[in-house]
User: Which sequence fits this backbone?
C-alpha cells in the first residue's frame, strides 16, 4: 500500500515548521490518474496550480503530461517556469486584470475560462490591440449544489462564478460576432472537496441538457467541455486512502456525460492530485495544563496552515516522536488569535516539548495559503527525495 513515510531522524535536524512532500505518494497518485485518462484519449488533465505550486511538485506533474489550470498571471508564470506547455494552460477567475489577459495572450495559452460578458469584452479589446485571437471557454454556472463546505461550493446560482445558464445562448451569439475571440468550449466547476459522485453525475446531466438545448436552437456544440475539478480526499484516513478514488470519478463522467463526436473533455483537479502527499511538520513547543484541558502548543499555526481556522477543517495530527499512551489535547498554534487551533480534545500519543508532529493531508491549499501574519517567516518545503 502507498503510504507517507516520514524520515524522523532528518526531521530532527531541521528547523520547524516546514512542509514535507512525499514524492512516492505523489507519483502513485499521478500514475492512478494517468491509468484512467489513458483509457480515454479525449480526456485532458489540467492540474489546478492553486492547490500547490512548489516547483519540485510542479515539475513532477509536468512530467506526468498534465496541463495547468491557472487563476492569475503569477500562476501562469509559475506554470511556464515549471515547464507546462502554454498549449496546456487554461486561465480562470472572475477578476482577470488587463495585464494578466495580455500576459496570457502573449504566451498563447490554450484558452481563457471567461466568467462574464464584461470580461469577454475586455479580452476582445485587448486581443484586438495585440492583433491576436483569444480562445475562450465560457464558464457556465450550472446551478448544481455540491455536498461540501459552504465556502468551497461554487456552482450555485447565488455564487459569484460564471455566466448564468439563461444567458448562455446570448453570450455565445455575442462571441460569434467578435473578430478577435474564438469560442472553443464550455467550462463548469461546482466546488471542491466533493466525495459524492452523485454531485458530479448531476453536473453531467446538466451539461447534457445544455448541449441538447444548443443543438435544438441551431448553435454549434463547442470543441471542448471542461468540468473543472473538485474531487475530494480523505482527511480522516490519509494512509488507508493515500490515493483518492480517481477510478470512480472518471467512470462517473464516462458513464453519464454525452460527449459529441470529436469533443474533448477537460478536467482541473487540484486537491486530489497533491492533497495526500504533503504534511506540515512542526515541533511541540510547550504542553500547558489548563484548568479543564491540556494544550499541545506547536510552533506551526494558522499562518502555516489556515484551513482549520478558515473552514473548520480537521487535519489528522500525529506525534511522530512519542510512543507514550494516548492523551487528549487541544492542539494549537502560537498565533495571537483564538481560532489558531488545529484540533480540539484530540487524542495524541503523550506529547512532550520537542516532539515532532505531522499535520496530515496538507499538500493541497496548505503551503499556497500561508501568510506572514505576526511577522512570521514562511515555512520552507522539502521533498522526500531531498531528505533521502
Ligand atoms: N477549477 C476551478 C475553476 C476552481 O475554482 C478550483 C478550485 C479547481 C479547479 C480545483 O479544485 P479542486 O480539484 O482542488 O477541488 N482553499 C480551499 C479550496 C478552494 C478551491 C478553489 N477552487 C480549501 O482549502 O479547501
Assistant:
Amino acid at each position: 500500500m502507498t503510504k507517507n513515510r516520514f524520515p524522523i531522524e532528518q526531521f530532527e535536524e531541521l528547523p520547524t515548521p516546514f512542509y514535507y512532500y512525499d514524492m512516492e505518494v505523489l507519483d502513485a497518485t499521478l500514475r492512478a490518474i494517468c491509468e484512467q485518462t489513458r483509457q480515454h484519449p479525449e480526456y485532458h488533465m489540467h492540474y489546478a496550480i492553486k492547490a500547490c505550486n512548489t516547483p519540485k511538485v510542479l515539475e513532477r506533474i509536468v512530467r506526468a503530461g498534465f496541463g495547468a489550470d491557472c487563476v492569475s498571471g503569477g500562476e501562469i508564470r509559475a506554470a511556464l517556469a515549471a515547464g507546462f506547455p502554454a498549449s496546456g494552460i487554461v486561465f480562470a477567475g472572475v477578476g482577470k486584470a488587463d495585464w494578466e489577459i495580455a500576459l496570457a495572450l502573449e504566451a498563447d495559452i490554450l484558452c481563457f475560462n471567461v466568467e462574464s460578458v464584461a470580461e469577454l469584452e475586455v479580452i476582445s479589446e485587448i486581443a484586438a490591440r495585440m492583433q491576436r485571437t483569444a480562445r475562450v471557454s465560457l464558464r457556465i454556472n450550472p446551478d448544481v449544489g455540491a455536498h461540501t463546505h459552504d465556502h468551497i461550493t461554487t456552482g450555485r446560482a447565488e455564487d459569484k462564478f460564471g455566466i448564468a445558464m439563461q444567458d448562455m445562448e446570448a453570450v455565445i451569439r455575442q462571441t460569434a460576432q467578435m473578430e478577435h475571440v474564438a469560442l472553443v468550449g464550455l467550462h463548469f466547476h461546482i466546488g471542491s472537496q466533493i466525495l459524492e459522485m452523485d454531485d458530479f453525475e448531476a453536473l453531467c446531466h446538466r451539461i447534457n441538457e445544455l448541449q441538447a438545448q444548443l443543438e435544438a436552437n441551431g448553435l454549434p456544440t463547442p470543441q471542448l467541455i471542461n468540468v473543472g475539478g473538485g474531487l475530494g480526499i480523505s482527511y480522516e484516513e490519509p494512509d488507508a486512502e493515500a490515493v483518492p478514488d480517481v477510478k470512480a470519478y472518471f467512470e462517473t463522467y464516462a458513464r453519464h456525460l454525452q460527449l459529441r463526436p470529436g469533443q474533448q473533455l477537460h478536467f482541473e483537479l487540484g486537491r486530489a492530485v497533491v492533497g495526500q502527499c504533503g504534511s506540515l511538520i512542526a515541533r511541540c513547543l510547550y504542553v500547558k495544563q489548563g484548568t479543564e484541558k491540556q494544550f499541545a502548543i506547536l510552533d506551526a499555526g494558522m499562518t502555516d496552515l489556515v484551513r482549520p481556522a478558515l473552514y473548520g477543517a480537521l487535519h489528522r495530527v500525529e506525534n511522530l516522536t512519542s510512543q507514550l499512551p494516548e492523551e487528549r489535547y487541544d492542539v494549537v498554534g502560537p498565533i495571537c488569535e483564538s481560532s489558531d487551533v488545529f484540533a480540539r480534545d484530540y487524542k495524541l500519543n503523550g506529547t512532550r516539548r520537542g516532539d515532532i508532529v505531522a499535520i496530515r493531508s496538507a499538500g493541497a491549499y496548505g503551503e499556497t495559503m500561508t501568510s506572514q501574519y505576526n511577522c512570521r517567516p514562511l515555512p520552507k518545503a522539502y521533498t522526500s527525495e531531498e531528505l533521502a
